[in-house]
TrEMBL record:
<feature type="region of interest" description="Disordered">
    <location>
        <begin position="162"/>
        <end position="206"/>
    </location>
</feature>
<protein>
    <submittedName>
        <fullName>Uncharacterized protein</fullName>
    </submittedName>
</protein>
<dbReference type="InterPro" id="IPR038792">
    <property type="entry name" value="CFAP97D1/2"/>
</dbReference>
<feature type="compositionally biased region" description="Polar residues">
    <location>
        <begin position="162"/>
        <end position="173"/>
    </location>
</feature>
<dbReference type="InterPro" id="IPR029488">
    <property type="entry name" value="Hmw/CFAP97"/>
</dbReference>
<dbReference type="Pfam" id="PF13879">
    <property type="entry name" value="Hmw_CFAP97"/>
</dbReference>
<comment type="similarity">
    <text>Belongs to the CFAP97 family.</text>
</comment>
Length: 206
């Protein structure tokens, strides 16, 4: 937004900023006063569709059938509880016996071996020193941020992490607010004069 304005010639930058803010305020006001061209209101409701009598009748019949089935099931359970002779062994078949597994001990030994190997791998991982140093990363990130601040004209909005936040506070940097960035006034126009191999920079007020 500010790059193209700085590239255009202006007689008075203060009046130009005031005019741009006035245009933006008018634009926002027009946006608030705009009315939609599409009707988004819900369609009207019809009485015969809102009250579906046939569906209500079917629901009542289904609930009645469910209550009847529950009553019959409760009656059967009560009869079984009051007549324990129905659960006598003579009405039941012989007890079922299942054979023992032939490879139970082998599976148990394999499980113990795999568990021991996993524990050994976990110990090696825990005692292994890291290859990368997070302190070097934080130092390099702080150095890169310092380069960005030296090159930038306006305040930067950099992402904050636990390490970089602590390092910024220790170096005394003040972070910009995350909701807005206030632009600083443009620097005075400079004039470059080439003198041999060097370049001399003079201000406009000279």
């Amino acid at each position: 937004m500010y790059a193209y304005r700085k590239s255009m010639p202006r007689l008075n930058k203060h009046l130009d900023d005031k005019w741009v803010k006035h245009c933006q305020r008018l634009h926002k006001q027009r946006l608030k006063q705009m009315k939609p061209a599409i009707d988004n209101k819900p369609p009207p409701k019809f009485v015969h569709l809102a009250q579906n009598l046939k569906k209500q009748q079917m629901d009542e019949e289904r609930y009645s059938q469910i209550e009847r089935d529950n009553y019959l099931l409760l009656d059967k359970m009560s009869y079984i509880m009051t007549h324990p002779q129905l659960l006598d062994e003579k009405y039941m078949g012989p007890p079922v016996t299942y054979g023992k597994s032939l490879n139970k001990e082998y599976r148990k030994r394999e499980l113990m071996r795999i568990t021991e190997e996993n524990l050994q791998i976990l110990r090696r991982i825990q005692h292994k020193e890291p290859y990368y140093s997070h302190l070097d990363w934080e130092e390099q990130a702080a150095r890169d941020e310092e380069y960005l601040r030296n090159c930038a004209e306006y305040p930067l909005m950099l992402p904050t992490t636990r390490g970089t936040k602590t390092m910024r506070q220790s170096q005394g940097y003040s972070e910009a607010p995350s909701f807005a960035v206030q632009p600083t006034p443009a620097p005075p126009h400079v004039r470059h004069k080439s003198a041999g191999k060097g370049v001399a920079v003079t201000s406009q007020h000279e």
